[in-house]
């Protein structure tokens, strides 16, 4: 924080003229400032006391006129030296975070040049085909089972073979349509997830 300003000629002149009205400690500080000449650092406490002396005398010179052309002195802030262990740890953490970010970004990217058809890739390619084959097989087994159960069970109701076959075809068709409906709804849900 600023606590001093650089002295200009009008400020030094006024300080020299009013030196006698200043307190003892401020007077000795004023003599040091006067010996240094223009550009000397003047503490704000000296300026406040000089301003008070000028006001008591009823001087026509105001403080802002004395400070015209002077600049506030801001001391240079010395930054503490960074701890080498801390710097090394920070660099390590930055590298680790950058590596994690890179892995996250490239997680789903595969290289076409390095791909030579491993068994894991073959398994990934076959899984959807396997699922379709099992679904179709399940459909046919369900329809055939419904037909067989109806044919065998209808012997207690119908004596003729034609009526038993007709009732079995009707039941197998209804079961097949129900199975197709469920299959379409399931496929629609899976496609919606993609």
Automatic annotation (TrEMBL):
Pfam families: Vma12 (PF11712)
Topology relative to the membrane: Multi-pass membrane protein
Alphabetized UniProt keyword annotations: Endoplasmic reticulum, Membrane, Transmembrane, Transmembrane helix
Position of the signal peptide: none
Transmembrane segments: 132-153, 165-184
Protein location: Endoplasmic reticulum membrane
Family matches, as InterPro entries: ATPase_Vma12
Main location: endoplasmic reticulum
This protein's name: Transmembrane protein 199
